[in-house]
Design a protein that fits this description.
This is 3-oxoacyl-[acyl-carrier-protein] synthase. Belongs to the thiolase-like superfamily. Beta-ketoacyl-ACP synthases family. GO terms for molecular function: 3-oxoacyl-[acyl-carrier-protein] synthase activity. The chain is α/β, with parallel strands linked by helices. The protein has 2 domains: 255 residues, Thiolase/Chalcone synthase (Peroxisomal Thiolase, Chain A, domain 1, 3-Layer(aba) Sandwich), CATH 3.40.47.10; 158 residues, 3-Layer(aba) Sandwich (Peroxisomal Thiolase, Chain A, domain 1). 35% of the residues lie in helices and 18% in strands. Strands 1, 2, 5, 6, 7, 8, 9, 10, 11, 14 and 15 form an 11-stranded mixed β-sheet that branches. Strands 3-4 form a two-stranded antiparallel sheet. The longest helix is centred in the first third of the chain and has 17 residues. The protein is globular and about 65 Å long. 56% of the residues are buried.
């Protein structure tokens, strides 16, 4: 099986646009979660009034202004999630130094870009327009903007990539599945290079209403937004919706070495599983996450004791954080594992950016790669009192401040509604 490495990274996040900006602000303890009360009257009556928003402003300040980041016509043709995917892809490709021109290279380069929900704004606005004005009020760009695979399509068209053109939509596991599936396309020889990741932008009253009705969102911190996302904390009470995109350039290892590319990490293992349990709630015993992580390590040929860091899915929900904590401990302790929970390094970067839904897995995979590359564990914000009386939260959760540690093996977890789970295992070469 061919080996797959990471040679490029691109980010659009609530901490800012660009890998360097987002990573540094994450390590410095900044939080990108803000109040959304002022976004309009439809937001003021919602139970949850906080979100992880990509900051708007000048490009020179690493903030979002579509006219500065996109080419003419892109804003009209692309939904917001696809715009984020394009910007993150451009950064990742530039970072990788991959700008193929020959037909052979273009054919061997593909795109795998997913989204969990896609353009809910277009669905809502067009439905209202059609209800009020009929057929002629529907834009001819409605369907192209709506389709989730158009993010991958636009990236392929922009750069002329003629390899696999694919999209995943597996709720909050989308970004991780996109990266893992893209790696397998390289392993099986369908491509030498893949641009892979997830993108999401659905900070919309309808989406927030739906998640609130499902009792998923944090509602107790509307007047203190930066404290709302509290992974592993005893006071956690729901996730904070966020938006953004994370894109990696994956490459067959020998291909990357031949062209002298900088290699961040090897994607050594990829595990998938299903809870087979409930539409929205996880199994309390954490069996699904446990199986995904176990399979990722098996594919990597590694023992649990070798894992130096886990970037947890931990969204700040009572059931989810406890189940994942149990799964991590079940896997990493005991035979072939760690001797004590204190040696398990695990953090959730959702305290800083919220839950980016379909983009979460890819953004967090990039944070995991950077943790490995820089030997630095990113912090879990708002972790005042770990755990709850029903679970043992006694690992090192990297509370509040980043920590320096040797990281040779790191894992990134993502889980989604429908009980779908994925785990990515990265290693240093």
């Amino acid at each position: 099986m061919r080996k797959v490495v990471v040679t490029g990274l691109g980010l659009v996040t609530p901490l800012g646009i660009g890998v360097r900006r987002a990573w540094q602000r994450l390590l410095d303890g900044h939080c990108g979660i803000v109040s959304i009360k002022e976004r309009g009257p439809q937001f003021t009556g919602l139970p949850s009034q906080v979100a992880g928003i990509v900051p708007e402003g000048s490009k020179v300040d690493a903030k979002w202004n579509a006219r500065e980041w996109l080419e003419p016509g892109d804003e009209r043709k692309m939904a917001r999630f696809a715009q984020y995917a394009m910007v993150a892809s451009e950064e990742a490709l530039e970072d990788a130094g991959w700008a193929p021109k020959t037909e052979e290279d273009l054919i061997s380069t593909g795109v795998y870009m997913g989204s969990g929900i896609g353009s809910l704004d277009d669905v809502y606005d067009t439905t209202v327009a059609f209800e009020n004005g009929g057929y002629r009020k529907v834009s001819p760009l409605f369907v192209p903007r709506l389709l989730i695979n158009l993010a991958a399509g636009h990236v392929s068209m922009r750069f002329g990539f003629k390899g696999p053109n694919h999209a995943a939509t597996t709720a909050c596991t989308t970004g991780a599945h996109s990266i893992g599936d893209a790696a397998r396309l390289i392993q099986f020889g369908d491509a030498d290079v893949m641009v892979a990741g997830g993108a999401e932008s659905c900070i919309h009253p309808l989406a927030i209403s739906g998640f609130c009705r499902a009792r998923s969102l944090a509602t107790d911190w509307n007047d203190n937004p930066t404290a709302a996302s509290r992974p592993f904390d005893r006071a956690r009470a729901g996730f904070v919706i966020g938006e953004g995109a994370g894109v990696v350039v994956l490459e067959e290892m020998e291909h990357a070495k031949r062209r002298g590319a900088r290699i961040y990490a090897e994607l050594a293992g990829y595990g998938l599983s299903s809870d087979a349990y409930h539409m929205t709630a996880p199994r309390e015993d954490g069996q699904g996450p446990y199986l995904a992580m176990k399979k990722a390590l098996r594919h990597a040929g590694l023992k649990p004791q070798s894992v130096d860091y886990i970037n947890a899915h931990a969204t700040s929900t009572n059931l989810g954080d406890a189940a994942e904590n149990r799964a991590i401990k079940d896997l990493l302790l005991g035979e072939d594992g760690k001797s004590d929970p204190m040696y398990i390094n695990v953090s959730s970067t959702k305290g800083a950016i919220g839950h980016l839904l379909g983009a979460a897995g890819s953004v967090e995979a990039i944070f995991t790669i950077l943790a490995l590359h820089h030997d630095t564990l990113p912090p879990t914000l708002n972790l005042q009192n770990p755990g709850d009386p029903a679970a043992d939260f006694d690992c090192n959760y990297v509370a509040h401040e980043a920590q320096q540690a040797e990281v040779n093996v790191a894992m990134s977890n993502s889980f989604g509604f429908g009980g779908t789970n994925a785990s990515l295992c990265f290693t240093k070469l």
